[in-house]
Amino acid sequence: MMTRYPHDARAHGFTLIELIVALFITAIIFSVGYGGVNQALRNHEQLKEHQTRLSEVQNAVRVMVQDFSELSARPIRDQLGQNWVASLTTQGADASSSGSASSAPAPAPPDADDDDDTEPLAADTTPDLIAFTRGGWANPAGVQRPTLERVSYRFANGTLRRMHWAVLDGTEASLPVPRDLLTHVKSIAFRFMNDERVWVTQWPPLGSTSLRSRPFAVEITLELEDWGHIVRVIEVPS
Fold first, then answer.
1. Closest Cα partner for 163 from 204, 202, 118, 203?
2. Could you report the per-residue pLDDT of 49-92, keeping only the tens digit for each?
């Protein structure tokens, strides 16, 4: 004989519609959760990129401040050893990403902040935007070399590059050591405060015959692709 169960005691399962609704709600919850996690990961990557860029800009400005605040009045000999080159030289102290920078050629010594394991640059023919002698070249290893060094800045293809030489009075065989300071640069410009407290864009100033003249201050204007204009004025100690 078949046993009959009360209506309220019968076992009930899920209908197909209930399963579909449950799966749909679960999918929505997973979708919302994945979107939140994915957005958090993107924000983290953007923050890392921003921090890396900030560090690059800060380091580049720091190096330039150290260089120009240590300007020395010591001129150098040209590569043939026949003439003297001013301690600070420019041939148009500004450049944009649409053209290469120009400047007087000059040999020079190494830089206090450059890595010692950086190889000399043999093939770069980009002209110097600005070249100068600076003091305060740190020598923690006690290497037999001067505390003065010759430094130049070059600009091409959106990259600001710092060069330094191992000797002050170099020859044609003296190769510079490169260091890429800053990328994504649209333009860079220099101005110099002369004896009359007037800003000029060329050094030595027009009419000056002194190879040891130094400006009272140097103004650097960087235009970056992402951050716009950055202006820094650096006082040159007398």
1. 118
2. 999 999 999 999 999 999 999 999 999 988 887 889 999 999 75
Q: Is the pTM of this model over 0.85?
A: no
Q: What angle do CA 222, 96, 53 make, to 5 degrees?
A: 40
Tokens of 15: 């209908």
Q: Where are the domains of the chain?
A: 65-183
Q: Which residues contact 52 (CB under 8 A, 6 or more apart)?
A: none
> For 65-183, CATH number?
3.10.610.10
Instruction: Give ∠ CA 184-189-194 in degrees, rounded to 5.
Output: 155
For the chain, how big is the Rg over CA atoms in Å?
31
Report whether 213 contacts 236 (CB < 8 A): no
